[in-house]
Structures are given as structure tokens and as C-alpha cells.
Amino acid sequence: MKMSPSKVDDSKEHSSSSSILPLSKRCSPSTVPRSRLTTHLSSSVSFANTSHVLLICCFITGLLDSTLFHAYGTFVSGQTGNTILFGLGASTSRATTRPYRWTKSLIAIVSFLWGCACFSHTTRVLGKLKRSTLILSFVVQGAIVLLVGGFVQAALVEGRLLKLTEEMDWRQCLPIALLSFQSAGQIVASRALKLNAIPTVVLTSMLHDLATDPRLLAPWSSNPKRNQMLGAFAATLLGAIIGGFISIKTGQMQSTLWLVGGLKFSIAGAWLMWPTGEGEDEL
To answer: 63 near 240, Cβ under 8 Å?
Structure first.
């Protein structure tokens, strides 16, 4: 069957036009979704309801600090408590049966400071409110927590609670350092999201701001900042209670670590689906 001259010409014209089309202009189906994903990840998140995410971080703080204090006698988020423990250890090391316990608190403080510097610098370089930055931050935090959970599960470090001994177990320094480092990512995120009322890792200054709020007794809907601070306190307290309950029931710390790691990755997933901000400038 012979094609008509007009159809032959049309086919030749179509093939020749497509062949001379620059390679950069040719769009394969696989490049379109990738471009959309890149655009989505590079967009800034909306500030709306971000306080809910930070309340979960406060809950995580309660979980971790109550569990780590039961296991190792130190904190990984509450650096005020670690400072006191460090000071007590430095001044009473000869009068205690645990002369090197203060080193755990010192390691936690230094690791937290290093985490603040690393997370803050990375956030500034990549973009404070970028979706990809927040996702990366909480993926790293979650991965560190799960890594420590794996160490404990494999019995590479002590994971039994209420088993503090007089002799210093230097293997405990590794999970303390890692968990303190990752906890810094939460307060860096709260600063990036302009939610200083929910620092997620400290309560003292927040309780001061709450008690001195001139509109403390205002109707619930008219004072969102007060509501956020109350929620942060309640979430941290609830996390500590549940962390203690898990500790008593299991006698191991890895159960809490699996829970915290799952929550961190869930937050990262939430940032992936979070609404895009419109006209919201970064600090």
C-alpha cells in the first residue's frame, strides 16, 4: 500500500523537526516529575501550625531525658541539669563513689554545643525554611537515634535501666554524645521557624515567659503564644511520664529509642507534605 505524497511529506517534516530539536528541549516523561519534586523540595514551608510539630519535639525531649537519666544518670537535652551535675561532680568527686560521673554531663554539654553549631550552619547554608532542609535535619536526627538503638539492641553499650555502677562504663559516652548532638537539631528548627516560645529542649526561660505574660488569663483563642508555652510544658511532662512508664515496664532503653526514632522520621515525612509558604521571608 503506497502512502500519498502529502502524508510522506508530513512524516518527513515531523521527523526532521524532531531531529533538529535541541537535546535540552526534548522532555522525557521521567524528567517532568523530577523537576516538580525538585521544585517542591526547594520551596519554603508555611508557618501555619508548625507549633504542632514542635510540641511533638517537646514530647520527644521528655521521653529521651527521662530514659537517659534512668540509664546513665545524665540528660541529653536539658543542659541546665547537666551543668549542675557537672558542677557537683567537679566539686565533690573525692567524696562520692562515682568520681567520674560528671564526665557524662560534660560530654553531653559539649556534644549539644557542637550539634547546635553544625545544625545551625547547615540550616543557614541550605536555607532555613526550605522543605528539603527541614526534612534533612529530622532524617539525620532520626537516623542517629535509631543508630544508638541498634547499639543498645546489639549489646554494644549498656541499655539496662537503673543499673548505674560505681565504676565508670566509658562505652556509655558514645550514646550520650550522639543523642545530645541530635537533640540540638530541635532547637535550631524552632529558631528557624520563628517559634522561640517553644525551644523544645529547655523549660526554665519558657516558664518565666509564661508566668510573666500580662495576658496569661486571656481567653484561649486570643493568646496563641501562651497556648504554645502551656502545650510545650504539658508535652514535655507527658513525655517524661511515658518515658518513665516504659522504663519500668521494659527495663531497657531501646524501646524508647525506637519510638523516638519513629517520631523523628514521621516529622520528616510531615515536612514533605507540609503546605508551601507564600511570601514568607526568612530571617
So the answer is: yes
